[in-house]
Design a protein that fits this description.
The complex is a heterodimer.
Chain A (H helix, E strand, L loop, with lengths): L1 H19 L4 H22 L20 H32 L15
Chain B lengths: L6 H13 L6 H29 L2 E4 L10 E4 L1 H21 L5 H4 L3 H17 L3 H20 L4 H32 L4 H11 L3 H18 L8 H6 L3 H25 L5 H25 L3 H22 L2 H32 L10 H4 L1 H15 L5 H15 L3 H26 L12 H23 L1 H16 L1 H9 L2
Helix pairs in contact in B: 1-2, 1-5, 2-3, 3-5, 3-11, 3-14, 3-19, 3-20, 5-6, 6-7, 6-11, 7-9, 8-21, 9-11, 11-13, 11-14, 12-13, 12-18, 13-14, 13-17, 13-18, 14-16, 14-17, 14-19, 14-20, 16-18, 16-19, 17-18, 17-19, 20-21
Classes of the chains: A mainly alpha, B mainly alpha.
């Protein structure tokens, strides 16, 4: 199971890097979404997928799932949702003001203003 | 009092929430923000005194014992940084009354600042690596609001880059924590340190160390990863720039210092040598940038990068003198950067431009501003007895003790470049004939802006002159960094 998930995480990271390197701002944002989902799956996998019982401590149960990675993922997912929402709003505002979503046209420094 | 170390985190958070209800009443917002920051300042000074007399303070949330619950730890290093953070914010808020503009004040400017302080103080205080990620996100989301507030064309363009860089670095942070968890199976920083010592830092831990260096290096702007900083920091108005320049990069520097003195201390030949080389390159890159620009903001922004290099150079020595110097220089740099940004904000307000070539002769009309700026510039470059000097001497001493004499020469030489870059501002802006007619400005607003600037510069001067009295505090902070077992015993005690 870990093996399949590792490949899935690799695929997610690959797609994320491909999208982040593209020119369209919307694709870059989708890429960051995929990147954070890959990172979340990575936490789950790195914590170990073993364990068949829920992590409720009763005498005699030794084979239980590690609850900590799941708690971490929960936090990280909420944060990534929030940040993605912020970026989308800001990208929309930026599109409204600059009339472009092409990252190449958003270069520039003080001298160009 | 057991919960004392949580006060500098909770009080700004509480006041930020209260402020959300007074969106339109700017006067209430100003008064409440000052009250909140003053209360936090009292709490943090009390915290420093308590840590000095009673040692490291810890709180485990929910009273779960240390490796299981989330612990908040306040040693001298973090207590001093928390105090400095609140002090700078207090003066920058005072400065922004007359400079930020009513439109921004109506749009959650003060709550955003207080939320950012919550995140910064939390990141300084937490003893749990995943909680550090959470507090980083708290301060980053508040900073996203601050950098884009106002919605100018250039702000929108630069803030989208700032956000993308930080989102990607946060994802790498999660990845690094995941790898670390898979190797040591714990998130409590003291416990991680014990577990890494037990397995004696195999190669995989060194890989994780570099991964952490990349993450915190992006936030703290070290050599190859500072590319986003000059553009993004130049976009927002001066008070926001002062807060970012004084505080945000220092959180990254703090995180590198903490992880590299607590976790990754068993293979110094690899990890710290790597940090040493990067810090030297950071200094050189910052020097080139500081000399290359004729724009006030950019010159001081590149000086942030130089300072980050100098502090991390002190950390890379891993001996008491080097660490003591790094702690001293870190706090010096936070104060002096706050003061300098406020001062150049006033220069820009007076002349109406940030281009050095269009200024001149200000010393005749604005004498106080000129002399205050000169003192701040000397303090930054490290002219004795001002504060930059003592930190650099200690860092150089640490470098000589650790046999890094050659690289410490580069650090000391960088002082000259720093001096050149900031004195150039003085020469171009204050000397010579007046280039053009100054725009008419309200003298009352000017005096209101000068007040926090002069007070900040006085504090930095006192910080340098009074170094003798502050040294015991710096020594306490450096002792904890130099010997991780002090930290571990305080957190994992029964």
């Amino acid at each position: 199971m870990e093996f399949i998930l590792s490949i899935l995480i690799g695929v997610l990271f690959t797609a994320a890097v491909y999208l982040i390197l593209s020119r369209s701002l919307l694709k870059v944002i989708l890429g960051t979404g995929l990147l954070s989902h890959g990172a979340h799956l990575l936490i789950l996998t790195m914590g170990g997928l073993g364990g068949s019982a829920p992590p409720v401590l009763i005498d005699g149960i030794t084979d239980f799932a590690d609850p900590l990675p799941q708690a971490l993922i929960l936090t990280a997912i909420v944060i990534s949702f929030g940040v993605t929402a912020v970026i989308l709003v800001m990208a929309y505002r930026m599109y409204a003001v600059h009339q472009t979503d092409n990252m190449n046209e958003l270069r520039g420094n003080d001298e160009h203003d | 009092m057991i919960n004392l170390l949580l006060f500098p985190i909770i009080i700004p958070f509480f006041f930020a929430m209260i402020l959300m209800f007074f969106k339109e009443q700017v006067v209430i917002q100003r008064v409440l923000t000052l009250i909140g920051l003053a209360l936090s300042l009292v709490a943090s000074c009390w915290l420093v005194a308590t840590v000095k007399t009673e040692g490291i303070q810890t709180v485990t949330l929910g009273s779960w014992p240390a490796p299981f619950g989330i612990s908040m730890v306040s040693d001298m290093f973090s207590a001093l940084l928390v105090t400095t953070t609140i002090l700078i914010t207090f003066f920058v808020v005072l400065y922004s009354f007359s400079s930020i503009g009513i439109e921004r004040e109506r749009f959650f400017y003060y709550p955003a600042i207080l939320f950012m302080i919550t995140g910064i103080n939390g990141a300084f205080t937490t003893g749990d690596i995943f909680n550090m990620f959470v507090f980083f996100e708290v301060l980053l989301i508040a900073s996203y609001l601050l950098i884009v507030l106002g919605g100018e064309k250039r702000q929108l363009r630069e803030s989208i880059k700032y956000i993308l860089v930080n989102v990607i670095s946060s994802a790498i942070f999660v990845i690094a924590v995941a790898y670390l968890y898979s190797v040591v199976g714990t998130l409590n920083m003291a416990d991680i340190s014990v577990k890494i010592a037990e397995i004696n830092q195999p190669g995989i831990i060194s890989v994780i160390a570099i991964l952490f260096l990349i993450v915190f290096g992006i936030k703290g702007a070290i050599f190859p990863l500072y590319f986003w900083l000059p553009g993004s920091y130049a976009a927002p108005p001066i008070p926001v720039l002062a807060l970012f320049g004084a505080l945000l990069t220092k959180v990254g520097v703090y995180a590198i210092t903490r992880t590299y003195t607590l976790f990754f201390v068993h293979d110094i030949g690899f990890t710290h040598q790597f940090l040493l080389v990067l810090s030297i390159l950071t200094i050189i890159a910052g020097c080139i940038g500081a000399l290359a620009y004729f724009d006030l903001k950019q010159i001081i922004i590149y000086n942030i990068i130089i300072a980050v290099g100098v502090i991390l150079f002190g950390v890379a020595q891993m001996n008491t003198a080097g660490l003591e110097g790094a702690v001293y220089y870190l706090i010096h740099d936070m104060l002096i950067k706050g003061a300098l940004f406020v001062l150049i904000g006033i220069i820009i307000y007076v002349t109406g431009t940030s281009n050095l070539r269009e200024m001149g002769g200000l010393i005749k009309t604005h004498g106080t501003l000129g002399w205050t700026y000169l003192i701040a510039a000397f303090g930054l470059a490290g002219i004795p007895p001002l504060s930059g000097f003592i930190g650099k001497v200690l860092i150089a001493k640490g470098a000589f003790e650790a046999d890094h004499a050659f690289s410490s020469v580069i650090v000391l030489a960088s002082s000259l470049i720093v001096l050149l870059s900031v004195i150039r501002i003085f020469i171009y802006a204050f000397w010579g004939p007046q280039q053009h007619v100054l725009p008419a400005r309200d003298q009352r607003v000017y005096r209101q802006m000068m007040l926090p600037a002069v007070m900040l510069v006085l504090i930095t001067a006192a910080y340098g002159v009074g170094a003798e009295w502050l040294m015991p505090y710096m020594k306490d902070a450096a002792d904890v960094l130099a010997d991780p077992s002090i930290y571990i015993n305080a957190v994992l005690k029964e």
